[in-house]
Every structure is written in C-alpha cells, then in structure tokens.
Amino acid sequence: VAIEKKLVAHKICHFLGPLLSRHCEDVLWVALGFLHKLSIFEQNKDQLVQSIEVVCRLAELAGHQNLEVAFLALRICYNLSFDHRGRTVFITQTSLLGKVLTACQQASSRKLAFKLLYMLSTETSQRSVI
Questions:
Q1: Are 60 and 25 contacting, i.e. CB atoms less than 8 angstroms apart?
Q2: Are 47 and 14 within 8 A, CB to CB?
Q3: What is the pLDDT of residues 43-58, one digit of tens each?
Q4: Which end of the chain is more exposed for a tag (fewer CB within 10 A), N or C?
C-alpha cells in the first residue's frame, strides 16, 4: 500500500494511459494490472475519469480476445463506475454495455459483469439507454 501511495503522488496514471493503445498483450496486461491497483485510490480514479480517451480505451479492452486482458479491463471499469462522470462516459460514449452483457454469459466473469451492470444502472438519467 505504501508503494501505491507514492505512485499516487507521482501521478503515474498519466503515463500508463497511453500504454493502453499498444497492441502487445504483455504490455496491456502489465499496464492494466498497475491501473487496477491504482484505480482503488480516489485521486487516481479521478485522473483516469478525466481522460475520456482512457475510459473509451478501457471499454474497448473489455472485449479483448485475451480473456485476462478483458477481465482486468472490466475490473478497472468497475472501479471507475463508482464515479458519476465515469458511469456517464461508459453509458453514452462507449460500447461497454454490450461487452458487459457478453461477459454475463461467461461463467468466469459473470459476477463482475453483474456488479458492473448494477453500478451502471444507478445512473438515473441514463437508465433509458440501458
């Protein structure tokens, strides 16, 4: 936890965001692993949600053919869904909803997908879209 707090101070999320556009699965897996650990902290969550490109890229990665990459992206999306702006961007500007519904059909990601669906449904102004 001490290391994560130091990374919060250095604003490392700004450096990890551009790595999500890479195509190498190993780089994606490492970057997503760091972002997952860092997205627990509110300061990092706020930094990630401010970048619409990162949020959109995370939604794209939730449908990645590598199941580990897709699951990590779903976990980060779940962490970001606790923020009002994150939920709004996920619902209005990404195709995350379809990918979450697909994840509901897979036994390995069903529990997380239902949690994420619940969090997205808490946005009362966007319920008609869901």
A1: no
A2: yes
A3: 889 989 999 999 999 9
A4: N
What is the rounded end-to-end Cα distance, in angstroms, of the chain? 36
The angle at the Cα of 23, spanning 115 to 77, to the nearest 5 degrees, equals 15
Q: Percent helix, strand and coil across the chain, each rounded to 5?
A: 75, 0, 25
d(Cα 107, Cα 95) in Å, to the nearest integer? 21
Tokens of 79: 């962490």
Based on its alpha-carbon atoms, the radius of gyration of the chain, rounded to whole angstroms, reads 14
Q: For the whole model, what pTM was predicted?
A: 0.89
Q: How high is the mean pLDDT of the chain? A: 89
Which one-letter DSSP state was computed for residue 81?
T
Is the pLDDT at 65 greater than 70? The verdict is yes
